[in-house]
Write a structure and sequence with these properties.
five-stranded mixed beta barrel, 204 residues, 18% helix, alpha+beta
Length: 204
């Protein structure tokens, strides 16, 4: 019950950020059609992974999953003692995966400038949650690394070499894409709402 309440709270915060950010995205390329985004397209996922890198000033933790996929999450302010985590630690994380606003071929202009960051309200202050004040929308030219049609998720590799998993609002788009294809994806940063060490396991 508690987790379901937290889930609804975070989805509401994410939708508030959408209201702020989507007009800015539309101004950048008003002719680009965009999929309709709804609350149900935010999904809570759990993973056991190894910490590959940390940036405590930004509350960013880069994780390597069991299949070798590497991705970065923003850790919620409710997760305490973040500085006690270190590279090599085995952890379990619950995190929200964003929904993809678009899946399409990049334009020539986008190929020259493969990543655009649109930030809603700037980085959150220490007293607020990243979901409420620091969600960043990122539009990137990416390569498809994985497709999971049952869960409607797509894993892509961005121009900085980071792997991102996003949920697709229109599942029919997954039948039109192939692994290795280059596409444009607009997504939010993943938000981790829990991060716990796996007792006794640290990479040497």
């Amino acid at each position: 019950m508690k987790r379901e309440t937290l889930k609804r709270l975070y989805i509401c915060c994410a939708l508030l950020c959408l209201a702020l950010v989507m007009p800015a995205l539309a101004q950048e390329n008003p002719s680009t059609p965009r999929a309709k985004l709804i609350a149900e397209d935010a999904v809570l996922m759990s993973v056991t992974a190894t910490i590959e890198a940390t940036d405590f000033s930004k509350r960013e933790v880069t994780l390597k999953g069991p299949l070798g996929n590497v991705f970065t999450v923003i850790v919620d302010q409710r997760v305490k003692r973040l500085n006690e985590f270190k590279v090599g630690d085995a952890v379990t994380a619950d995190y929200y995966v964003s929904f993809a606003a678009e899946l399409r071929k990049p334009t020539a202009e986008e190929e020259k400038n493969p990543m655009v960051v649109v930030e809603a309200g700037g980085r959150s202050s220490p007293e607020t949650s990243p979901a409420g004040g620091g969600v960043r929308w990122i539009r990137a030219v990416t390569t498809i690394e994985g497709l999971d049609r049952p869960t409607r998720t797509i894993t892509v590799k961005g121009p900085l070499g980071r792997y991102v998993t996003a949920r697709v609002a229109d599942p029919s788009l997954l039948t039109q894409t192939r692994i290795g294809e280059t596409i444009v994806v607009t997504y939010t940063e993943a938000l981790a709402i829990s991060l716990e060490k796996v007792s006794g396991k640290t990479r040497k």
